[in-house]
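Morning, I've got a small favour to ask if you have a moment. I've dropped the whole record in just underneath, so have a look.
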Amino acid sequence: MHETKERLIRLAEVMDRTALTRSTLYALIKRDEFPSPVRLTATAVAWPEISVDNWIQGRIDAANGVAE
């Protein structure tokens, strides 16, 4: 049996992959339009890579007129 390992990515990589700024990402999170991060420690957060990938794919699908 093959297990898929979940990977967490930090803010810099999320910003790079989405082409969004920190303030835009957090504004989208506040409006429930972007996945919330997972708290790692009292001062560190990261995003599940699959959540970010799914959000990106959703934006691509929306741009191409694909129904959700």
About this structure: The chain has three helices and three strands. Strands lie at 8-9, 38-39, 45-48. The mean pLDDT is 93.
